[in-house]
């Protein structure tokens, strides 16, 4: 008995220690005591359960789950369901956690709370919303504010990712979390200005909360505000204020927040601002999106957007293989998604393989008819870039759901007109008009109520008529104009067009129709005649008409003053102009084309140039001095010197003389140029 009493007393003491440590939050010390108990009694259910709780509190989720799985006979699902599901949830085994919760025989409040979290991570927002509503309705404890926050987060996610218009939950935005979630919901609806105001309100709430705490540094405050500032920068980016957004994004990155999800989103948004510019910065930012644990912090659509941007960045940096690899991986994950195949096609186009790009897009359109319209629009764009406008038109006309759209009709008509294929352009108009005649309707209890003469339909008929008139198809235009006039007999503009068209084809019919035009007496035109007469255009016309009338009267009467002729300016004459000397008749011809041109004399210059050192004179230097030659004609006066020519001189002035000494003057100038070209002695 004494031997039995010893272990029992020891176990009791250990349990007291476990209880005391648990109340103090010292789970590491409690774990040591629990391990001692299990050494005495290894299958003690309470001790095993306490050990699992201590491990969870210390963050050792793997070890805790291992103990649960190795003691399944003792730790049944009824006893340990919540702890097992929580460990799986924290280890990001979300599907396993869901199965564990659903397999539990009794759904406790703790399991319901965890169930809501699991549904949120699985992005099953409708089920999650129902779960939290049930919890709020049937729970009354100190965690009500947290449940409302989670509920608002679900509504924000629905608005952002599923584009569901959120209902008013009537939540009082008394905390920064509720304000932040409300702002996210508004962003999803596109109400950016309202969302910014909510974020500013959330910022004030958070600042007030942090200031009330002790030992909080400015860096701690900035780190806490980072998520709000990140959302503000996102709104600025959506509003087109990219410089402001970029500045705020970079400020957040400099703070080095611990939230890898926030960093990844900001880095991705900076890459989207950079696009194909500042590629080096984008390559650095991509590293932030590859941080460990990012995939558990972001939604599927966020992760997908990051992968798309990685593929585009690889294309911009000419990493063709990497681009193909990433886009192929994305396509395998989401076969029906458009972006992967569009990125692949863009990469092929960069490699000048347009035919392969078109073939790739055609294959995708055949496999996914639901997305064929957008793909075919891209194919048509590629064909236009190649100069195959007719083939582009054929592709566009194969998109049945867009054939009747005014934008598509306008594009096709423009393209066919560019190719001078007027028949095909008219055919496009005809098909669109027929579609509206037969199929444009409103659904009323499953039946079709035909409304063939909608405003769009009438607009198409009018455009078709104008096009046919422009290209000389008057008879075809007449039928369209008659149709329009029947719809609105009071439309004077259409009637005038119809009369104009008939006047070229059937004048008698035009006369008959002209009777339907309103008389000038019945037309009440609210026109200010005085203002019209005093307008600039009317004044100009009146003045011109007055001039014409005056000229006619002068011609008829043969009287009046002769119209003044403009005086021609006298041309400037040379300074040495002599009216007695006959000008050279060939002075306007180039020198080579004149009759007295003899060409340049080669070799003479070399014979005349004195030989010896620079600066020395030779015997022939006096012969080279043109000023000493009596027969040489005078050159043009140098600046600063007077060119004195006597009145009785027989020398011909420079402008009128034949350039007998022109060759000698040219040679002298060339010699001067050559001497000046030498650099140094």
TrEMBL record:
<keyword id="KW-0687">Ribonucleoprotein</keyword>
<dbReference type="GO" id="GO:0005786">
    <property type="term" value="C:signal recognition particle, endoplasmic reticulum targeting"/>
</dbReference>
<dbReference type="InterPro" id="IPR031545">
    <property type="entry name" value="SRP72_TPR-like"/>
</dbReference>
<dbReference type="GO" id="GO:0008312">
    <property type="term" value="F:7S RNA binding"/>
</dbReference>
<keyword id="KW-0256">Endoplasmic reticulum</keyword>
<keyword id="KW-0963">Cytoplasm</keyword>
<dbReference type="Pfam" id="PF08492">
    <property type="entry name" value="SRP72"/>
</dbReference>
<feature type="compositionally biased region" description="Basic residues">
    <location>
        <begin position="665"/>
        <end position="681"/>
    </location>
</feature>
<feature type="compositionally biased region" description="Basic residues">
    <location>
        <begin position="563"/>
        <end position="573"/>
    </location>
</feature>
<dbReference type="InterPro" id="IPR019734">
    <property type="entry name" value="TPR_rpt"/>
</dbReference>
<comment type="similarity">
    <text>Belongs to the SRP72 family.</text>
</comment>
<keyword id="KW-0175">Coiled coil</keyword>
<dbReference type="GO" id="GO:0043022">
    <property type="term" value="F:ribosome binding"/>
</dbReference>
<dbReference type="InterPro" id="IPR013699">
    <property type="entry name" value="Signal_recog_part_SRP72_RNA-bd"/>
</dbReference>
<dbReference type="GO" id="GO:0005783">
    <property type="term" value="C:endoplasmic reticulum"/>
</dbReference>
<dbReference type="GO" id="GO:0006614">
    <property type="term" value="P:SRP-dependent cotranslational protein targeting to membrane"/>
</dbReference>
<feature type="repeat" description="TPR">
    <location>
        <begin position="226"/>
        <end position="259"/>
    </location>
</feature>
<feature type="coiled-coil region">
    <location>
        <begin position="94"/>
        <end position="149"/>
    </location>
</feature>
<dbReference type="InterPro" id="IPR011990">
    <property type="entry name" value="TPR-like_helical_dom_sf"/>
</dbReference>
<keyword id="KW-0677">Repeat</keyword>
<keyword id="KW-0733">Signal recognition particle</keyword>
<dbReference type="InterPro" id="IPR026270">
    <property type="entry name" value="SRP72"/>
</dbReference>
<protein>
    <recommendedName>
        <fullName>Signal recognition particle subunit SRP72</fullName>
    </recommendedName>
</protein>
<feature type="compositionally biased region" description="Basic and acidic residues">
    <location>
        <begin position="575"/>
        <end position="596"/>
    </location>
</feature>
<feature type="compositionally biased region" description="Low complexity">
    <location>
        <begin position="627"/>
        <end position="644"/>
    </location>
</feature>
<feature type="domain" description="Signal recognition particle SRP72 subunit RNA-binding">
    <location>
        <begin position="543"/>
        <end position="599"/>
    </location>
</feature>
<keyword id="KW-0802">TPR repeat</keyword>
<feature type="region of interest" description="Disordered">
    <location>
        <begin position="542"/>
        <end position="681"/>
    </location>
</feature>
<dbReference type="Pfam" id="PF17004">
    <property type="entry name" value="SRP_TPR_like"/>
</dbReference>
